[in-house]
Design brief:
Elements lengths: L8 E12 L2 E12 L3 E5 L6 H8 L7 E6 L2 E2 L5 H5 L2 E4 L11 H6 L16 H13 L15 H14 L4 E5 L7 H17 L4 E6 L11 E6 L2 E7 H4 L2 H8 L3 E6 L2 E6 L1
Parallel strand pairs: 3-8, 3-9, 6-7, 7-8
Antiparallel strand pairs: 1-2, 1-4, 4-5, 9-10, 11-12
Helix pairs in contact: 4-5, 5-6
Length: about 260
C-alpha cells in the first residue's frame, strides 16, 4: 500500500466542529483510526455520516478542530494529492462515457471518471487492473461496458477501482445501496476478501443497516445529530442499548456467524 506517513494512525480527528449556513453538522467529533482497522460508521439518515466521511476523504475542511489524514493535516496539505492515497467507493459514481470494467478500474490511477487527455496506462498497470478484476470476481465482465452492468457488478468494479491506486485508506459510502439479497452478500464477501488481501489497509464503511456490515469489521462508530455517541471495538459498540440510543428507537441486536441483525423491540 502507498503511504504518506510512518505513523500507525491513518486518521486522527480531534474535537472537530463543522458548521454550514449557521447549522452545526458535526459537533465536537473526535476519532482515531489505526492501520489495519476496519470501521463501520452507523447512524440514521441525516445523522452526519456523509459529512464525517467527507472529512475522512479530505473533501472538506473542519470549521474548528483538527483533522489529520495519513499524517497530513487538512489545511496544510495539497488536498488533491492527498486524495490519491485514499480509495473511495461511491455507488453513485457518475460515468458519462461507456467505459469497460477494465478501463473503469484503471481510472482509479488518475482519480478521474475517464482517462485524462494524452494519458494511457502501461502494460503493467493493465495487468494490475486485470488482477483486481479477477480478485473481485469480475473477470467475465472485464470487457463489458458500464451501462450493461447490474448495480452489484458496478459495486465490485468500484472496489477494484478504489484499490487500483494502492490506497492506505479505503472509504465505502453505503456500497450495498440498491442491491438485492444475493448481490449484497456477494459484495460483502468481496469487501472481506479485499481486506484480507491487503492487511495494511484501513477502511471505513458507511451504512444505516446492520445487515450490511462485513464480518471483517473490527470497530464501529455511532453518530446521532452530528455527535458521536459511541466508538470502539465492534462487539462493544453494537449493542442493543447503544444502537437504540443512536437511532432513537428500541432495537434488539443479535449476532450470528460474524454478522449482525436488528429487529424492532
Amino acid at each position: 500500500m502507498n503511504s504518506t506517513t510512518d505513523t500507525p494512525h491513518v486518521l486522527s480527528i480531534d474535537h472537530v466542529d463543522l458548521v454550514r449556513n449557521g447549522r452545526a453538522l458535526l459537533d465536537d467529533v473526535s476519532l482515531t483510526v489505526r492501520r489495519g482497522e476496519h470501521w463501520v460508521l452507523l447512524g440514521a439518515n441525516g445523522a452526519g455520516k456523509s459529512t464525517l466521511l467527507g472529512l475522512c476523504g479530505a473533501l472538506t475542511h473542519p470549521t474548528r478542530g483538527t483533522v489529520e489524514v495519513l499524517g497530513k493535516r487538512l489545511g496544510r496539505v495539497d488536498m488533491r494529492e492527498l486524495r490519491t492515497h485514499i480509495g473511495h467507493v461511491n455507488p453513485r459514481h457518475r460515468l458519462d462515457v461507456p467505459l469497460t470494467v477494465r478501463d473503469v478500474v484503471l481510472t482509479g490511477l488518475t482519480n478521474t471518471p475517464e482517462f485524462p487527455p494524452r494519458w494511457a496506462p502501461t502494460e503493467q498497470q493493465r495487468e494490475r487492473a486485470d488482477e483486481l478484476v479477477a480478485a473481485l470476481g469480475m473477470t467475465r465482465h472485464a470487457d463489458s461496458v458500464w451501462p450493461t452492468l447490474s448495480q452489484g457488478e458496478r459495486g465490485r468494479a468500484l472496489i477494484a477501482r478504489a484499490l487500483m491506486g494502492e490506497p492506505s485508506l479505503l472509504l465505502l459510502d453505503e456500497p450495498a445501496t440498491g442491491l438485492d439479497l444475493a448481490a449484497r452478500e456477494i459484495l460483502l464477501s468481496a469487501v472481506d476478501g479485499a481486506r484480507l488481501a491487503h492487511p495494511e489497509l484501513s477502511s471505513i464503511l458507511v451504512t444505516h443497516h446492520l445487515e450490511e456490515i462485513p464480518t471483517s469489521t473490527t470497530h464501529a462508530v455511532l453518530i446521532r445529530d452530528g455527535r458521536l455517541t459511541a466508538a470502539g471495538p465492534v462487539q462493544e459498540v453494537l449493542t442493543t442499548e447503544r444502537i437504540s440510543a443512536a437511532f432513537d428507537h428500541p432495537i434488539t441486536i443479535t449476532r450470528g456467524n460474524g454478522r449482525w441483525t436488528a429487529q424492532s423491540s
